[in-house]
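Thread title: Can someone regenerate the structure for this chain?

I was given the following input by a collaborator and told the matching structure tokens would be attached. They weren't. Posting the sequence so someone can regenerate them.
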Amino acid sequence: MPPENGLSRREELLAVATKLFAARGYHGTRMDDVADVVGLNKATVYHYYASKSLILFDIYQRAAERTLAAVHDDPTWSAREALYQYTVRLLEQIAENPEGAAVYFQEQPYITEWFTEEQVAMVREKETQVYEHVHGLIDRGIASGEFYPCDSHVLALGYIGMTLGAYRWLRPHGRRSEKEIAAEFSTALLRGLIRDEKVRVETPLGEGSVARA
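Best answer:
Regenerated them for you:
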């Protein structure tokens, strides 16, 4: 009999495990705990996930896919507009599933213990794609003269860390919306990068940023 919440049994197990991992940590959660919350015996849980590490890897894959979904660049956008739009999408993704983001970063130092070398490589590849996108946007702005020259590698890493770190406190119905926070983050970065004083003061996020957000 399918769950009453409309999720498939596998999706329900994943959702429960994500909440438990976020609250207790991966190491502090047993398969018995997941089975108890869902109301299944452990053997049934193992039917859907052969090991606890496979649940964690599924969480990682989905979190990475959501982050990559934020990577979208319209060729008509300036570098500053593209960077802002990326930030909006990323924070929206985090707000939609803060537990998944929490698990991703809480367990990040230990994934070589939980995952196979191939799984770790898959995780690193997706992280590299996100870094290359942000790094590329900053380099594009420098090359076009839109941005001041800077160490785009360091800036990209710092900006990614700042935005992704929002999982610790970002909530769907918090004091500020995801779009408002994205505007704050992006404005703080871009006002240090934009060469044109008028643009820097008046439209650091782009002419159509409000309409497109």
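The domain at 56-202 is CATH 1.10.357.10 (Tetracycline Repressor; domain 2).
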